[in-house]
Amino acid sequence: MSIKQIAEMTGLSMTTVSHAINGTRKVSKKSLALVQEAIAKTNYRPNLAAQMMKTNRSKMVAIIIPETEPNNSTNCFYFDVLNGARARLEESGYELIVSTYPESDAKKLTEISVLQRRWIDGILLVPATDSFADVKPICELGLPLVMVDRWVKGCDGIQVTSNNREVSKEAVRLLHQAGGRRIAFIGSILENSTAIDRYEGYCDAIRELNLPLEGTLICRMPKYTLEYGYEAAEQVLNGGADAVFAANSMLCLGAVKRLHERHVKVPDEISVIGFDDYAWTEVMDPPLTAVTQDASLMGKCASEQLLKLITGETAECIHISIPARLAIRESHGPKIK
Amino acid sequence: MSIKQIAEMTGLSMTTVSHAINGTRKVSKKSLALVQEAIAKTNYRPNLAAQMMKTNRSKMVAIIIPETEPNNSTNCFYFDVLNGARARLEESGYELIVSTYPESDAKKLTEISVLQRRWIDGILLVPATDSFADVKPICELGLPLVMVDRWVKGCDGIQVTSNNREVSKEAVRLLHQAGGRRIAFIGSILENSTAIDRYEGYCDAIRELNLPLEGTLICRMPKYTLEYGYEAAEQVLNGGADAVFAANSMLCLGAVKRLHERHVKVPDEISVIGFDDYAWTEVMDPPLTAVTQDASLMGKCASEQLLKLITGETAECIHISIPARLAIRESHGPKIK
DNA sequence: TTGTAAGCGTTATCAC
DNA sequence: GTGATAACGCTTACAA
């Protein structure tokens, strides 16, 4: 079924039919009704390929997220981002194509097939690092681009992230309020903005509380895995920590595992606050107090901005911060005096 | 950059250039070299839209998965399926478009926008139910279709699932071996094949072990949520269960939560085996013995089959079963005598 | 082994 | 308000 056939059915020209469908020019009521009737009867759908060819628009958007091994809770987080984005894009008639890159190898970014095919209207990108050099090839494609979850230093694109720094500071303050005086940080190396912001938030709080920043209490592990969390806990326990801010869910799990094994009582002997809130946080012993991000909303907001870029509206913000909050349970304290 | 321009550069015809690119007809070594050189020099990429228009192929595939609220571990599972599929499709130059439907409303399936646009080469579908009526509209699109994770009764399409029934039976046998005599089942209502198979596997084992199938020990909850797991645990505890097979990760979490709260010792007083293996299973007290599915492999296999359907090779299997296995930890027993 | 030319279904230009 | 027609970039008979 094509416009041509609709034209024949209605006795109108292809031109009029096209305009009637797209509302791109004035069409008489009568013609419009005729076209609508014919479309309903024939179940006509415009041919996407032909439209693409003429308009250079595909109504498709790509999301590029880091890839981790299966069963890593990071996947769960990005899936929620993805799904939030997908839902918003759907409202505007856009499809979402998924692409991933190995977190460890940002160089692969340019090889991403969907970018090579150059047939998407825009990109949602979770950058691997905070370095502009790494995303430069993508910026240079000249496509509408929105950064999600992590920002990039010196890049003036639109960025949608959680308020990692502020909420981390808040978490550390809560640990202090609950009696923590030797508050440890378990996070990752500072190669992307979330790692940096969470660490900075920790430092902000420690300074504000007039506590010393101690090397033995600060762990920046090379990867987000249970094993590294385990190792980090060992280190901060030996450093005499009485509280831990674990800036990633996998690291937090590993740390808690080690605490259990060493029979260190939470929160009596050590307070714990984790990052990202999953169902299992509630089942832990004791239930884990954790930072909750609104991943879905991040995806939604990012899509919203991207759609504005695509349609040519000026996007109003360079950096949008989605508030994360603390889900208060029991692991943070208060300590028994 | 178009084929026309490449033709001009090389002094060949568009036809020859096209054939040289696609390998669809014999081309002299010399011409081929010329074309390749020109392509490398100009960084030419074929125009997808034009290709689509001629070939009616988009080199895009849609995956349709049920949608749950954020932070549900089901999401994590389907993300691994998705990612396995994506990786395999990428190898063959296909992109993956994501689509979801509310688990509770299978009727929405036909409204899925990507299907309406009719511009995909195939579909990977996680059916909402085991009823053919629900997927019929999708089958009738006439597109290559592979079912993933769940099968559909009376549908002769290709289906890739875990061996839910067998592995569930195995889990129950293990509970029995560890001393369980009143083994409870916590699962969901039997509206999709995974729910059914896991329940059947439970029944198989119970019968084989000459234990009675007791109503009070069987919970089929309406949704996969922590709350329902909690409720189910209450019921089976009151029914005198000394072992629990929890056929879903969220239900398992909820059940374990209730066991903790009632200070029932695992595995001394009650054995537990869960379904799906996440990092947190290792951190639970005691570490959870659980069925591990290879979600990623399921996605990969399903894509493999779909690609065969698309390229017209006969797919060799109607039903492919991906073996799940038990990750043995401590929650299943053995009991203290 | 190569080339000519038609045609896919749209949208856009221009003329009426 | 409407219509004829060209053009987008590719694939594929058909012809040589």
For the record, what CATH class of the largest domain in chain A applies? Alpha Beta
Oligomeric grouping of the chains? homodimer
Total helix count of chain A?
Answer: 12
What share of the residues of chain A lie within helices? 40-55%
Biggest protein-protein interface? Answer: A-B, 54 and 54 residues
Poorly predicted runs of chain A: none
CATH architecture of the largest domain in chain A: 3-Layer(aba) Sandwich
Total DSSP E strands of chain A? 12
Supply Rg of chain A.
25 Å
Average of the residue pLDDT scores of chain A: 92
Task: Estimate nothing, just give the exact number of structural domains of chain A.
Answer: 3
**Overall geometry of chain A:** elongated
Quick one: CATH superfamily of the largest domain in chain A?
Response regulator
